[in-house]
Write a structure and sequence with these properties.
The complex is a heterodimer of chains A (409) and B (284). Chain A has helices spanning 6-21, 24-31, 46-64, 84-97, 109-122, 134-142, 144-147, 158-174, 190-205, 224-232, 246-256, 275-278, 301-312, 318-337, 342-350; strands spanning 35-41, 73-79, 102-105, 125-128, 150-152, 181-187, 209-216, 237-242, 263-267, 287-290, 353-356, 359-362, 379-384, 388-393. Chain A has 409 residues and is of the alpha/beta class. The chains are: A alpha/beta (409), B mainly alpha (284).
């Protein structure tokens, strides 16, 4: 990997800034076509709509400041749904038909993995903001030349998620609240089956007791048997690992039967800003790991959340923040590289170090977002009465205390 | 053990409401109405539309949802099924097309997220150590009442006699002056109303999304194959068997295996007793 000398980067940024100030840019902007950013996501889901809208917000901010390299930015959206076939079509549409300069998107890991060969073939920078599988970025290391176009900015990979969840269980639920017995339940999916042994090892190493660990079919709509088993297992807390449609149903059935075991964990739908309302308030006290909530995580967090809300009249989920950050990080790399050419942008993006809405962005050698203190962290956020969200963990970001379900008080 | 008894009963009740209408249409009209899953979905969505979005009182919204779905069922029979009735393949295709269109319309209108259908009951009950939500208990009671009413309707009324006559010999029934088109229309409407009732009752605690129709249809299909196509008692028996088998597997083995139960039951039935549990007898 060649390092661009620091003075060259500075000079490039300076030149771009000078160009804009001296009025050369508007002349070019009129003559040259816009730089096109493709969005490939599941537009029917809030995850997807927020990806699109977060990217649009960043594009409009950049355009308001005169664009990039003297050109305006424009956005093209393709709906990849949650189906790998449609995901591949979306990438082909964006690269072959629309000839975009970069792609931002991704939610379902299976879809992104299916898209990778097509992204590599199109030699287009792709920034994944929603899919958590480590297998996606592992490809970069396996074959750098072919897969160097793949980046992840936004979501952390599931190994970091596991680390965050173990810390929430051992340091917070056990260390601060004194809970010892845990049940782990999750969807019957590959990433969950990979995650459960990691959680078990991490928990038992710190002296916790995992009294039950079970997966359920992703088509399950009746959780009564599972919830009764959790109740009868003697668990003090139910750790959940859910990424698809089951969150709403689980919350309702947990509340309806007043299961005397509080729950929380990796719950992707539980991050939706309308989740509490969608389940009629039955998610009260449920905890969902999240990247972005209204708290000063970085200088960019609150301005972004305010701008998003003012523009779209709703709160965003993590992919909105991820897409916003991805566009800004890519634009920063383009400005430093003084080119939209993929190889130059990749080299610049590899050295990114900037504040983003969820903390500070740096990438590792697999083009994956780095996690840890001072960087990006998983936040453990509890839904409380009235749909209020409170950060419980990590300690430095805490905004409130753990609340028990009202039937356990 | 009480957990299995109580939760198995609720699952069986929902399955019975779903399957009975499906088998009723087959028993009478000798057609496979694949739009049946859509009626279950529409029952739940109409309730959401009337109660949550339009603000009607829940009971009224539920009745309106069932009536609207029954009306749609009647319309499906009149304009989609009746012109194709001579070809069972054409009926299957046109009713499947209806289900797919209904899914897409709901997807575009309401999005693919789960929607919150309001529940009639919010209290929790404990039955012999098993905790159960009030809405689930009410679903069980409603299913028992609905099936009893259906039985009375078929056995004790003139309209029911016409349905019975058609199921036994359509040609003879026609010679006796029974207006077969009208009876077919009523049967599909009745079957749609039963599926909608299942949607109204189960929608608040099971998943109400545009993806709910197909799993409901395959479940109804599985139950009807196990029970014997066209046999109402067979369907109820199979619904109870599958409901309890799934619940027991979830408790004793793992929730990952519940979906395999009905598929295994279908496979075993087709291998060992292709006509189903009660398939050799007359339709009712």
């Amino acid at each position: 990997m060649t390092h661009i000398p620091h003075f060259t980067r500075r000079a490039a940024v300076l030149a771009a800034a000078l160009g804009a100030t001296l009025g050369a840019a508007p002349a070019r902007a009129q003559g040259e076509p816009p730089i096109r950013i493709g969005i490939s996501t599941a537009v029917q889901l809030q995850i997807g709509r927020d990806t699109r809208d977060g990217a649009q917000l960043a594009i409009d901010e950049i355009n308001a400041k005169g664009g990039l390299l003297g050109r305006k930015l424009a956005m093209v959206v393709a709906d990849e749904t949650e189906d790998p076939e449609k995901g591949i079509s979306a990438i082909k549409k964006l690269t072959a038909d629309e000839k975009v300069d970069a792609i931002v998107g991704g939610y379902t890991s299976g879809v992104v993995l299916a898209q990778l060969p097509h992204i590599a073939a199109a030699r287009t920078v792709y920034i994944n903001v929603g899919a958590a599988s480590p297998a996606i970025n592992a490809k970069v290391k396996q074959n750098y030349e072919a897969n160097k176009y793949i980046f992840r900015i936004g979501t952390l990979n599931s190994l970091h998620l596991a680390g965050g969840l173990v810390s929430y269980m051992t340091d917070y639920l056990h260390g601060e609240l004194g809970m010892k017995k845990f049940a782990i339940v999750g969807e019957s999916a590959k990433w969950v089956q990979d995650l459960i042994p990691v959680l078990k090892r991490g928990a038992t190493a710190k002296g916790l007791d995992v009294v039950m660990a079970e997966t359920f079919d992703t088509g399950t709509t009746n959780f009564s048997p599972l919830l009764s088993k959790v109740k009868n297992s003697g668990a003090e807390y139910m750790v959940v690992i859910l990424s698809h449609a089951s969150s709403d149903v689980l919350a309702k059935q947990w509340y309806d039967a007043r299961i005397p075991v509080p729950y929380g964990g990796i719950d992707v739908k539980g991050q939706d800003t309308d989740f509490f309302e969608r389940v009629g308030g039955k998610a009260v006290t449920a905890v969902a790991g999240n990247y972005i909530v209204r708290a000063p995580l970085s200088p960019r967090t609150l301005p972004f959340l305010d701008a998003f809300k003012a523009r779209y009249k709703r709160e965003t989920v993590y992919t909105g923040a991820g897409a916003y950050d991805a566009v800004h990080a890519w634009a920063d790399a383009v400005a430093r590289a003084n080119s939209v050419q993929a190889d130059a942008v990749i080299k610049a993006l590899e050295k990114v170090d900037m504040p983003i809405t969820t903390g500070r962005l740096q990438l590792d050698d697999t083009h994956d977002v780095k996690a840890g203190p001072g960087l990006v962290n998983m936040l453990w956020v509890q839904w409380q009465e009235g749909g209020k969200r409170v950060i419980l963990w990590p300690r430095e970001a805490r905004t409130g205390d753990f609340a028990k379900p009202q039937w356990m008080q | 053990m009480t957990d299995i008894l109580v939760h198995g009963a609720v699952t069986s009740a929902i399955y019975a409401m779903l399957a009975v209408g499906f088998t009723l249409v087959f028993g009478v009209a000798r057609i496979l109405n694949l739009a049946h899953g859509a009626f279950y979905m529409l029952g739940a969505y109409f309730t959401y539309l009337f109660a949550t979005l339009l603000g009607l009182p829940l009971a009224l919204a539920a009745l309106a949802a069932i009536a609207a779905t029954a009306g749609l069922g009647w319309a499906v029979e009149r304009w989609l099924i009746r012109p194709q009735r001579d070809s069972s393949m054409a009926v299957m295709m046109v009713t499947m097309a209806f289900l797919l269109v209904a899914e897409q319309v709901l997807l575009v209108t309401f999005g693919s997220e789960v929607v919150n259908v309001p529940a009639f009951a919010d209290a929790k009950f404990s039955l012999g150590g098993a905790d159960i939500g009030g809405q689930q208990l009410l679903t069980l009671a409603t299913a028992v009442a609905a099936l009893a009413v259906l039985w009375l309707l078929i056995q004790r009324t003139r309209a029911g006699a016409a349905i019975l006559a058609l199921s036994q010999d359509p040609l003879a029934a026609q010679y006796m002056g029974i207006p077969i088109d009208r009876v077919y229309g009523r049967v599909v409407a009745l079957s749609a109303a039963l599926a909608a009732l299942a949607g109204v009752m189960a929608g608040p605690f099971l998943s109400t999304s545009p993806h709910m129709a197909m799993p409901a249809l395959t479940k109804a299909f599985a139950i009807v194959i196990v029970g014997g196509l066209g046999s109402l008692p067979g369907s109820i028996l199979a619904a109870i068997l599958l409901g309890y088998a799934e619940t027991a597997v979830a408790y004793l083995v793992s929730s990952s295996w519940t979906e395999v139960v009905s598929l295994a039951a279908v496979l075993l039935t087709l291998l060992l007793r292709p006509a189903g549990l009660r398939g050799k007898r007359a339709a009712f």
